[in-house]
Automatic annotation (TrEMBL):
Taxonomic source organism: Cyclobacterium amurskyense
Keywords: Glycosyltransferase, Membrane, Transferase, Transmembrane, Transmembrane helix
Lineage: superkingdom: Bacteria
Lineage: Bacteria, Pseudomonadati, Bacteroidota, Cytophagia, Cytophagales
InterPro entries in alphabetical order: Glyco_trans_2-like (IPR001173), Nucleotide-diphossugar_trans (IPR029044)
Record-given protein name: N-acetylglucosaminyltransferase
Any GO MF annotation of the entry: glycosyltransferase activity
Chain segments annotated as transmembrane: 6-29, 287-307, 313-332, 344-361
The keyword Cytoplasm is annotated on this UniProt entry: no
Pfam families the UniProt entry points to: Glycos_transf_2
Entry's family note: Belongs to the glycosyltransferase 2 family.
Residue ranges occupied by any Glycosyltransferase 2-like domain in the UniProt entry: 47-164
Amino acid sequence: MENTLWWIFFLALGIQFTYLMVVFGRFVFFHKAQREALQDTNLSGVSIIIAAKNEARNLQDLVPLLMEQDYPDFEVLVVNDCSTDNSEDLLRSLAETYTNLRIVNVRYTPDHVTAKKYALTLGIKVSKYETILLTDADCRPVSSHWIKRMSAPVRNEGKTFALGHGSYLALPGLLNKIIQYETLFTAIYYFSFGYWKSPFMGVGRNLCYQKSFFMEKKAFKSLWHIEGGDDDLFVNLYATADNTAIVAHPESITVSQPKTNFKAYFTQKKRHFHAGKYYRTKDKLKLGLYSLSHLVFWLSAVGIVILESTWEPIALVLGLVLTRAILQYLIIHRARKKLEGTGKVIWTLFFDLMYMIYFWTLGTKGYLSKTVKWK
């Protein structure tokens, strides 16, 4: 029994080290950040699309902020999705000040489609420009160069997709620290595989792609019935090694308002995990192999500590656990500095355990759920 447990422990540890040092490490330690000065040869127009439902308060702050972007030709197109607050009046008022603000008011959603996908499709269909840049109403670009950074691969390199990082505002409390850790670790996942030329997801808080490609693929065809997934599932379906770029620079990120209670957070993550079950099989394996080995690593380590009667094997296990914790700290520290411009991370070992519990509880519930809602 103990010999088998040791073999299981070392197998799980080997998989974990492979992910940390090879898959994540290649991006974190060797990816060269974009130069400070972008050599833009094509400053063609960009359409920023925002699907918003009852977001008047956020839109009042976001629209003026977007108008401060340092880019010569762009529009902000807000799709007002059946809002019952004063969003429509607010947007009309803002449009009198900002001539490049356009509004699409959705009065109803057909029964066979999901609300956000329908809203985004209407917005993209009537957008003026070929380059589409997506964000949410509660997001804020941290730099006036956000448009330029995020759209550069699509405009200048002919890429279909440009994947960006969407972080969350740092607030006091345990929940916010969990959100910060989970969001950063998710970004490490998809940036790392994107760097390995194997992209599998993006986030709608910060995503850029070609309008013509979207229309060619008939919008969200085959995804209409799935709540959520307008971002990660669309990327998962069509992103390839050749048509996708990652944008890793502190000037390219957006910051969103995080959930402030566990119930709202669990509802959000349930929707995300629900979409995840529609990923391609090979992409489920990318995520599942790490997560399964993560769980087995901790369970087998605890099992060995309980079953062994001498200090030598216990010390070996604890030493390997500590070695993995140090390596993970370095990965997360460097990733945050590369993506967000700051490297301050704490309690990585604690949140590593929290992440494991979160993944296997919420992940299972979301994967098995049949009904989820956007708003």
